[in-house]
Amino acid sequence: MKNSLLWQLSYTEIYITPTLWPDFRRQHFAEALIDYGNRQRRFGSL
Prior knowledge:
Layout: H1 4-8, H2 26-37
């Protein structure tokens, strides 16, 4: 079961924000959704 988490992360979309969790509000969540909606998924292709 070694490295199983890395295997499960393939093709995962990750959003990183400088906002700390206690300060995370609806506006930050909306920004994350907009960012995700604008992504072009290539599933590993260039």
